[in-house]
Amino acid sequence: MAQGRLDPLVTAAVANKAFPAFSLPDDWDVVVQDGGAILHTATVMTLMRARAGARVIGERASFAPHRDGVSIRTDSEEFFAERAILALGPWLGRALPPLAALLHVTRQAVGWFAPHSPDTVALGRFPIFILDRGPDDIVYGFPDFEQRGVKAAPHNHGPAVGPDDWGPPASDAELRSVGDALAALVPGAAGPIVDSDVCLYTNTAPADVRLDAGEEFIIDRWPESRLIVCSACSGHGAKFAPAIGQRLARLGTDPSYQAELFFQLSRYSQFA
């Protein structure tokens, strides 16, 4: 995804000329999308909390679903909701144990690299990018939009962890493949690691009714209750938040609405 006005499918030579930070091989297929953007999650969370005002509950909460609603209890109060949406990311399987076997949480290393050519990776001149070097070897990254370096990470799954096992920040060893990919394909962005972090992916298991290879989100109503469940919005789910939020709002307000079949629980035999 990039800024600039290129045809969607271009040669590597055209992409390298348009974005000099790249050095893509001549035989690569390159797709450029002009509509990309960056969702700054810290700003978004601040705005959402401000709009919610006093309705934000900053306490640990438990819930109990009933046929006519959901009771929610905190340390200081208990109230009843007609419907409740659980968008708990890696903790969803803990809140709803029947989902635990269908959700696999993985540790994902993220790094910031001091770019070799800072001018070529500046916001507005350099695109968000995804490098697909084959099965289990995908690297994505961003321009230096925070003046912190080029943010880049592997998209292939890291080791499985528990939802509270964030562990230490990502190590240089975990990010070595990313640094190698930048050096080979995006030399303008390559450089030493200046910062690192970890996020968690909440991955779904392959479906066995409406067959898929996994990786689709769960966005659906929970059986025999007024709960609505959403597995997204940890790790790579955050960037889909506007579209996911729209679907969750409709599930909560429009009884006739159903999310797309590939998001529904019925794609698994235990919920069919």
UniProtKB/TrEMBL annotation:
Gene3D superfamilies to which the protein is assigned, alphabetical: D-Amino Acid Oxidase, subunit A, domain 2, FAD/NAD(P)-binding domain
Pfam families assigned to the protein according to its UniProt record, in alphabetical order: DAO
Domain FAD dependent oxidoreductase: 9-251
UniProt keyword annotation of tRNA processing present: no
Cofactor(s) this protein requires: FAD
Record carries keyword Ligase: no
InterPro entries: FAD-dep_OxRdtase, FAD/NAD-bd_sf, MTOX
Keywords, alphabetical: FAD, Flavoprotein, Oxidoreductase
PANTHER family: FAD DEPENDENT OXIDOREDUCTASE DOMAIN-CONTAINING PROTEIN, PEROXISOMAL SARCOSINE OXIDASE
Protein name: FAD dependent oxidoreductase domain-containing protein
